[in-house]
Amino acid sequence: xxxxxxxxxxxxxxxxxxxxxxxxxxxxxxxxxxxxxxxxxxxxxxxxxxxxxxxxxxxxxxxxxxxxxxxxxxxxxxxxxxxxxxxxxxxxxxxxxxxxxxxxxxxxxxxxxxxxxxxxxxxxxxxxxxxxxxxxxxxxxxxxxxxxxxxxxxxxxxxxxxxxxxxxxxxxxxxxxxxxxxxxxxxxxxx
Length: 191
Fold this sequence. Notes:
By secondary structure, this protein is of the alpha/beta class. 52% of the residues lie in helices and 14% in strands. It has one domain (3-190). The chain has 10 helices and 4 strands.
């Protein structure tokens, strides 16, 4: 049976280009075959809206009877309490699905999903991965500079689709650099 996975980003317009190939590979890494798609309706357009229990219950789960795994992926943005919020939300929504094979998983990109893209690339020698990983605003501090260096600034969504396709060729590097989010999600989905 093919697994049906719905990835729920905080704002699909840019994040889908990073999350779709990433989650597709994670599902494969878990030894599963399936169809991964991005939730486009609703488009939450922000972390607070994406973490709204009632909206997720009615506007996502209520409309998606044929989904096996719901994966809500939002940015941590340096908010240390966000892990607790994510855990409570996941428990409430996963319980709503009842005793079945269906799952609702909430995970945080550490610090922003753009870091997952950068993890697969050879970075300028003067950039420290540890500093980059700790930066709560990695999108503005590093990703935009990387886009300027790579010449994708004028491409749709600053070249996220092209850059992520290139990053995915270095899957082991992504896993090695991102154990807090990618590695943890793989472990959780295998379990």
